[in-house]
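Retro notes (design track)

What went well: tokenization of the new backbones is finally stable.
What didn't: we kept losing track of which sequence belonged to which structure.
Fix going forward: every design gets posted as structure first, then sequence, in one message. First example under the new rule, 228 residues:
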């Protein structure tokens, strides 16, 4: 798929409208930066039904859709943090946990009171030394947004020769187009055959489509890139 077939700017903007837009973004993104989604990339409905019986609750429509669409695609779900499998879903302090940080330092979930919504808000909880200080904090306004951001972020964090990272507070130079805002604390940029994510204005992750594009990025954005 070339860039004329997948307009990431338009797809990101459309993803903010509804969850169908989020799933279209994930599908286009997966095909452009890796492999198209296939029929075996999601969990079967029977496994989600079994999770509901085990937990004694109903999973929101958006969560079921994400798991059915790409829940088994590790490149979109589990390169750094981990999307739990249906049989790993659990309830913690009033929320259904669906994702964990790779060392257990944080959890992402949906409050039990929001499970009746088709596309509920998500929350995040840090694992603290003082357990009395732990609490669920608001994360994304819609689960589908959180899932789309997860897919894009995890793909950029994939162990790949065309991915690299640098600590930087600098703005990207001219020639990099800022894309629509998507994801808490994230800014996204598109350059010639490269996608860049900047998190909390401090950590930059880049994925290029060719070695030449990555070399051009190094020249345009000098710094202590981990792979250079």
């Amino acid at each position: 798929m070339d860039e004329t077939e997948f307009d990431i700017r338009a797809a990101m903007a459309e993803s903010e409208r509804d969850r169908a837009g989020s799933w279209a973004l994930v599908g286009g993104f997966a095909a452009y930066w890796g492999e198209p989604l296939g029929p075996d990339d999601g969990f079967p409905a029977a496994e989600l039904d079994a999770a509901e019986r085990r937990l004694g609750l109903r999973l929101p429509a958006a969560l079921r859709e994400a798991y059915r669409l790409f829940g088994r695609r590790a490149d979109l779900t589990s390169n750094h943090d981990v999307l739990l499998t249906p049989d790993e879903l659990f309830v913690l302090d009033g929320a259904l946990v669906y994702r964990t940080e790779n060392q257990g330092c944080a959890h992402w979930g949906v409050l039990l009171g929001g499970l009746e919504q088709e596309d509920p808000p998500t929350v995040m909880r840090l694992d603290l030394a003082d357990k009395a200080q732990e609490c669920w904090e608001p994360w994304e306004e819609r689960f589908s947004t959180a899932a789309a951001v997860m897919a894009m972020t995890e793909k950029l964090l994939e162990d790949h020769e065309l991915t690299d990272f640098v600590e930087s507070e600098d703005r990207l130079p001219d020639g990099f187009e800022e894309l629509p805002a998507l994801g808490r604390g994230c800014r996204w940029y598109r350059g010639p055959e490269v996608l860049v994510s900047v998190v909390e204005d401090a950590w930059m992750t880049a994925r290029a489509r060719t070695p030449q594009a990555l070399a051009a990025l190094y020249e345009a954005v000098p710094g202590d890139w981990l792979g250079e």
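Added context from the reviewer: The chain has a mean pLDDT of 93.
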